[in-house]
Amino acid sequence: MTQPRSDSADRPTRLPVSVVVLAKNEEINIVRCVDALAWADEVVVVDDASTDATVASAERSGARVVNHPFESFAGQRNWALDHAGLRNEWVLMLDADEVSTAEFAEEIGRAIESAGPQVVGFRMCRKTMLDGVWLKYSDGFPVWIMRLVRRGRARFEDSGHGEVPVPEVDGELGTIRTPFIHEAFSRGMDDWWMRHVRYAGREAANERGQDGCGSAIAVFSLDASRRRRGLRTLARRIPARGAIRFFYQYVLRGGFLDGATGLRYCRMMACYESMIAIRKSEPSPVDHDRGN
């Protein structure tokens, strides 16, 4: 079995970063993810009761594994910050289907070394891959997300099935411009569709509770994260949102430049947007209760 990282002879060469990896039944991805983090002082896999070889595979690769039931992405990340016994000030958050690169690690090292006390975290971006093709245009690269935080100084925030990409923080956020890799389709297309059926239900429930909230004026913001939130708010209020999402991604954002793979992905995301609209029109659980 691989020795724990705390006992490793080359520990001084590693960056003083704790990496938290969220996982559930990720035996296909977990070894690739953990092995690519050899540069980090500590890797902790937060597992949600996996029934496959995820835990054993992660431990063989040198990660420490803790178990905690998954309720939401932000909730799981915040739980890790509070309860996973992390030993470093800087914490990088990844999912099991995300992969570091050497260039990404090098920029993190430079960033945390030069970060002043007012810096509480860093926004970064990822390259989403489909069949070996980088969805540079159809996925809207770069989409900025806060994933590297100074422990005790920043928190993650839920939004629908996911989380607020760049939440409000008490301090400054820096930027890591070198992307990491997102193998979003590594568990197969059937798995992707089943996950997005679930995600659509969560997004619909979230939108039912937030209609009328938020401002579409944010689409004119100079801040990319605020602009994306404004677009989402606007999209909730217009019909044919699936078709509009396709037009936005494929035409306005240049998804056609990603070739046939870009067309395929834009069509899939248009279907996902339509699923949210359909699920949103369903009676809420409260309405069902009233009818019984």
Descriptive key words:
292 residues; alpha/beta; seven-stranded mixed β-sheet; four-stranded mixed β-sheet; globular
One letter per element, helices H and strands E, the order comes to: EHEHEHEEHEEEEEEEEHHHHH
Mean pLDDT: 88
How many β-strands, per DSSP?
13
Largest sheet, order of strands side by side? Answer: 3-2-1-4-9-6-12
Percent strand equals 15-25%
As a whole number of angstroms, the C-alpha radius of gyration is 20 Å
Helix content: 25-40%
Unreliable residue runs? 286-292
What general form does the structure show? globular
The number of helical elements comes to 9
Describe the 3D structure:
The protein has helices at 30-35, 54-60, 73-83, 102-114, 189-208, 224-235, 241-252, 259-280, 285-291, and strands at residues 15-23, 40-47, 64-67, 90-95, 98-99, 119-124, 126-130, 133-134, 145-150, 158-159, 162-163, 172-175, 180-182. The protein is an alpha/beta fold and 292 residues long. The strands form three sheets. It has a seven-stranded mixed sheet with strand order 3-2-1-4-9-6-12, sandwiched between helices. A four-stranded mixed sheet has the order 5-13-7-8. The longest helix has 22 residues, at 259-280.
